[in-house]
Design goal:
Structural class: alpha/beta
Order of helices and strands: EEHEEEHEHEH
Shape: globular
Strand content: 25-35%
Oligomer: single chain
């Protein structure tokens, strides 16, 4: 697992197992509710030869708020938007595998799980929707795109 630490709303720096412990704790506060766990990544090409990527893990207590955790990573320059979007998706998918392997240890919890991609019908990314959705589905995850991809389009975007 990648040792890039996640930030919490409480100012804590957490590794992935600690994030999962926080997620489980949040869900156990109100175990009868429905939960959705989502992962999304957003990025920005910096003026230097680097790109800034922010990944968010969101636990949503449907109809009643939620919590999120985010981390920042830098990668080298991307020559086009398509390559950067594909990297966002791959970063989210790698994190999803780590998160789900830890969540599976907690059989008592019930949740839906989605990968959120920062692409939509409007703008430069509309030609990529089928490709990105296909990649996410190939990894056996449920994809969401704009306007439903809040983990990437709102949460991660806030920290890019």
């Amino acid at each position: 697992m990648n040792q890039v630490l996640f930030n919490s709303s409480y100012g804590l720096k957490l590794d992935v197992p600690q994030v999962i412990k926080e997620v489980i704790g949040f869900m156990n506060l109100d175990p009868k509710r429905k939960y959705k766990i989502t992962i999304g990544t957003d990025s920005e090409q910096l003026s230097s030869n680097k790109a800034d990527f922010v990944t968010a893990i969101v636990v949503h207590r449907v109809g009643n708020g939620g919590r999120y955790f985010w981390r920042r990573q830098e990668f080298g320059r991307f020559h086009n938007l398509r390559d950067r979007i594909i990297k966002e998706v791959m970063v989210s998918l790698e994190m999803a595998k780590d998160v789900l392997s830890l969540l599976k240890e907690h059989k008592e919890i019930d949740f839906d799980f989605e990968i959120h991609a920062d692409i939509g019908e409007n703008g430069e990314t509309k030609t990529m929707i089928q490709e990105v959705v296909g990649i996410i589905r190939a990894y056996n995850f449920e994809p969401k795109t704009k306007p439903g991809s809040y983990a990437a389009s709102n949460v991660a975007d806030r920290h890019v």
